[in-house]
Amino acid sequence: MYSISIALEGLCHFLAQDFPASPGMRHADVSFPLNDAFDPLAWLGSQICFPQFYWQQRNGDEELAALGAVEQFASLSAAQHFLTAHTATDDTRICGLNAFHPEQSSLFLPRLLWLRAGGVATLRLNLWSDSSLQEDAQRARDWLQQLRDSQPIAALSANLLRETQLPAKPEWLDLISQATDTIARGAFEKVVLARATDLHFDRPVNAVSLMAASRRLNHNCYHFCMMFDAENAFTGSSPERLWRRRGTHLRTEALAGTVASHSEDTQAQQLGDWLLNDDKNQRENMLVVEDICQRLQHHAQALEVLPPQVVRLRKVQHLRRCIWTELSIADDAQCLQWLQPTAAVAGLPRQSAHQFIQHVEPFDREWYAGSAGYLSLAQTEFCVSLRCARVGDSAVRLYAGAGIVSGSVPEEEWQEIENKAAGLRTLLLRD
Fold first, then answer.
1. Which of 203, 211, 272, 343 could be a cystine partner for 288, CB 3.0 to 4.6 Å?
2. Over the stretch 312-327, which tens digit does the pLDDT of each residue have?
């Protein structure tokens, strides 16, 4: 498109200058007009270089598309150390995923970062080398030559061949009974158990097409898509913020408690009202609130817990309580350790619930129930990786979980994960 071509020309002018044959970090920003139909997701999906990362804030105010890696990081602490050790500018962003086990990440400093914040968009080129900026500038010049023009995103068109669930329904119902029995013995108060659904298709599934379809229909969600290579991706549309930091100001939330949604406003309102007044769901939500507050209380000033609200999504509705505070020090690596996994995706107490999950779940969560987003010295935001899928060639694995507390009914919990998985499943199985 015209806008991306003009922006890339501006970056080529930047690269034409002389750079020192010494270590360093530089970047160039080119303003990007928002007066055409440029779709950063479509542009990403047209490229043949990786990694690629797309992320959109749930209110739509912020959107980014990151392409190519100048440097990659296996943990958020390593990424944070890089930003501080190499005197990065406050707005240098590192993007990607943190796994369910927060010690593992797939984060990268992008070669190109398209960023829209409100009504302003920029295209940034990053240079960095621990030996020669001159050499990295040449690498960037060569790399830009492989970029392709943006093409429209193709519609999903694969046909389902078979479907399996881990665990299958009988085993799932048994796991819920095991969990409630263990809760009754006092081992933990809550545990979140998940199911993986493997869908096998007759042709490769395009992760960008799946992301575009979800973005179009699943509103009030963060949208994220990490493409590791041409065949493997992790994508999802999550309603839940893990944390947002602006300087030392922190916002997080407890999103726990679920009921079905409905396409008709009146029926959705009735279901939402029931959720606000249901003891089991209120108790589940408050367990998460109390856990977050306990984790943050020694590292922050006064904690403000906002009144509960109902978040209405396409297939489900959730209870949410927002929690605002100010940190003693802006440390994203510590925020990740304090907040992930929350009681909303693991349980409470964290360690005993975590051990139970590892013992009984018949699959590895990998990136599911981890987090997706970006960090910088000035600000950071990650969502919880929920309502998500791992895409690998012609196979798609969907994930969904349910919070189990005293009084949980196995059949109802099965219906809850069915409703949650439907947010992406229905997109893949459309006629």
1. 343
2. 998 899 999 999 999 9
In this prediction, residue 35 carries a pLDDT of 73
pLDDT at residue 400 in the model: 93
C-beta atoms surrounding 145 within 10 Å: 7
Q: What is the pLDDT of residue 430?
A: 64
- Verify whether residue 240 is a known catalytic residue: yes
Q: For residues 379-392, give the mean pLDDT.
A: 97
348 Cβ neighbours under 8 A, 6+ residues apart: 188, 189, 190, 287, 288, 291
Tallying the residues shown for the chain, one arrives at 431
The mean pLDDT value for 230-237 works out to 96
Residue ranges of alpha helices (H) inside 322-401 are 332-339, 350-360
- Name the residue among 324, 186, 334 with its Cα closest to residue 253: 324
User: Which DSSP category does 45 fall into?
Assistant: H
* Active-site residue (options: 71, 190, 284, 315): 190
Burial of 251 (0-12, 13-18, 19+ CB in 10 A): middle
Q: Is the pLDDT confidence value at 389 over 90? A: yes
190 is a catalytic site residue: yes
Catalytic site residue from 71, 240, 366, 416 = 240
Q: How many CA atoms lie within 13 A of 135 on its CB side?
A: 9
Helix (H) or strand (E) holding 192: strand 190-201
β-pair partners for 127: 26
The one-letter amino acid code at 193 reads L
Q: Within 10 A of 302 (CB to CB), how many other CB atoms are there?
A: 8
10 Å Cβ neighbour count for 392?
A: 16
Backbone angles phi, psi at 155, to 5 degrees: -75, 150
Judged against a pLDDT cut of 70, whether residue 431 lies above it is answered with no
Q: Can you spell out the DSSP letters for 132-183?
A: -HHHHHHHHHHHHTT-----PPPPP---EEEEEEES-HHHHHHHHHHHHHHH
What's the whole-number mean pLDDT along residues 147-156?
94
